[in-house]
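Hello again, I could really use a second opinion on something today. I've dropped the whole record in just underneath, so have a look.
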Amino acid sequence: MTRSSFLALTVAVLLLAGCASKPKAPDWELEAHGSLERYVQAFMAADARVESSEFLRAREQLTRTGDAGLVARAELTRCALSVASLVFEPCVGFDALRPDAPAAERAYGDYLAGKVLPPDVALLPPVHRAVAAAGADAGAIRAIGDPLARLVAAGVLFETGRASPEVLQVAVDTASAQGWRRPLLAWLGAQARRAELAGAQQEAERLRRRIALVLGELK
């Protein structure tokens, strides 16, 4: 199965064999794949309890292989989801693995931190290369087909001070269409703050009402 986000690169390693003629996947692949999928859904839904337990379960299965690259991808997936939700913190889990991680993983970690070097852009997943280059705009974000990759890319632009109002709107529309509560609240909050700073009080109030609706506070 092919996807355009970095998460897909992780999951692709863990997917079951596509036909019966291939050897059965080992148990760690099955367990890690299922847990990563559930972790992503729980994170986006802001279900902290399920999110934490599923990630720990996936990581435990991956560490059984002794493959730093696999575990690094899982940690980068966690950091990518945070960036997609406008949470910009050190990628501590990945940093511990960085010395033994492949070059592509190190480049992606730098990208998520908003500091990928020009020579390393070619190591990024193809959908992120245009965003890593100077001059990326809402059009480049909108052109990304995978919703998660689109939100991650928008988060990187926001982190590096390159997110226009149009980029914020693309991110809001993407999170809304997927029903992803956590990033939707984050991006709506960013829009509301910009509206307030611009003195657009009516727009800010509209956005605050929408946030209350997502939170279940608007009766």
About this structure: Residues 14 and 29 are 5 Å apart (CA to CA). DSSP finds twelve helices and no strands in the chain. The mean pLDDT is 88. Residues 27-44 form the longest helix (18 residues).
